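User: What would this chain look like folded?
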Amino acid sequence: MSHPQHSAPAAHPPAPGRRHLLVSALGLVGSSSLLALTGCGGALASEASVRFINATVDDTQADFYLGSTQEVSKLANGGAITSWRTVDAESTQFALYKGGGATAQLTETRALEEDSYTSVLAYGSLANSLRFRFFAESSASADSGKVKVRLFHAAENLGGMDLYITNTSSLSGLSPTATVTAYGELSDFSTVTSGTYRIRITTRNDQSNVLFDTTTQVNLSSLSVHTLVVAPRPSGSYPNVSALQEKGDSALLANALATG
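Assistant: Here's the prediction, encoded as structure tokens.
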């Protein structure tokens, strides 16, 4: 799977109520692009911005609804991410359907704050329950020259994990950037110096068992805030990582260890 390529994020994105959202991305080295994303539908009295991530095990394609309106059609699992969507901020029912299905597999009613940004993650399995996780993107920016990063564990087949954001080939002697001890856990934010990095995830307390590795360096820009979601791949035990920049764009990071 190839790495998506986007440009570096702006420090202060425009309000989501504007019809054209200029958002920028967690960028990969050597990439350069700027996405102009347009909200759907007519003008709304009270607007919010949402994006959706499919980290489910069973739904190789997923549809997402808000109330009776289909917002997303056939989003692939493995951590695929949509662009931002401008929606009504009033209380509404979020629903997950199997791609093309007629019956909701999961619903949750949620009110969104006006002019807010929210990443909506669907994860889990039919066997062990499907879940929504709503990431309200309201965190304070990192300090100048710094980046804030946290890790969310959405791969039910894996145990605790350690995240390493480094510029070294060896992990020996290094402390994890962040740790999650179990499925469904969200770590606290950790702070690293802005720059380009190699991102690896290992089994907790076992640096020799690398579960995720992206050998193409990832650019983390000053002031930015990121949530990294460990998502199960459609096949095999190695996960992908959905990289979500708050109020910015996203990148599905392919696992260099995975084949097929």
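Confidence is low (pLDDT under 50) at residues 1-42. If you want, I can go into more detail on any region.
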